[in-house]
Amino acid sequence: MLGIRDPEHLRSFRFFQTGYGNEAERRLEELKELAEAGNAICNSLPDQERDAFLELFLMKLQASWYINASFYYADRSCLAWDRGAMQAADGFLEASREMDRRKKELLYYYNEVMQAGKWSGILTPESFSPPPTALYPAARPALVLDGPELGAVWEELTFHAHGRERKRVTLFNRGSGAAEFQIEMPDWMEADETEGRVEGDLPGRPVCDVFPAGHLYGKTPGK
To answer: Is the pTM of this model over 0.90?
Structure first.
């Protein structure tokens, strides 16, 4: 997976967030699952074996997730800003910076804490000029937040017998506070959520997958 784009060679907007069913999000979820599986293995090992496992495997998995997540959320911040989802633009910017902080904490632990600082100065990808790793992906903060206003974007709601069963509708709030939403659709369609409140566009946001009821296929105008 990392052979497609090594973490140190990452650049903004290298993976689609609005095409191929959100390629960037799928890729990030797979990296997260690998990192969490590595954490589970590490926690199951005897204490005297955990540092070696971190050095050989886990550090690479965690760092890859943190770096890719930092770029994903920064790209998402720019996308949210372009859509007018200003609350989400701020939220994704902070999520990107949080992942960057986690990466720095991981590097500090590897160099200064693990094995009583035995590897101090060994793993320092940000200490050279120019640094040999990608840093500080660009995000776009909101300059002004007005009152709550619902916004939405969606994929073309056309379904084919041999195509994707589910299409995505992303809801967001253009301003501050929370905006209520209600989704109406023809009888042959269903959705994961049909009403609620939306504040931003962060993980856990109302992202509704719509799909044909009873595996019927057709098309409806987006409204």
So the answer is: no
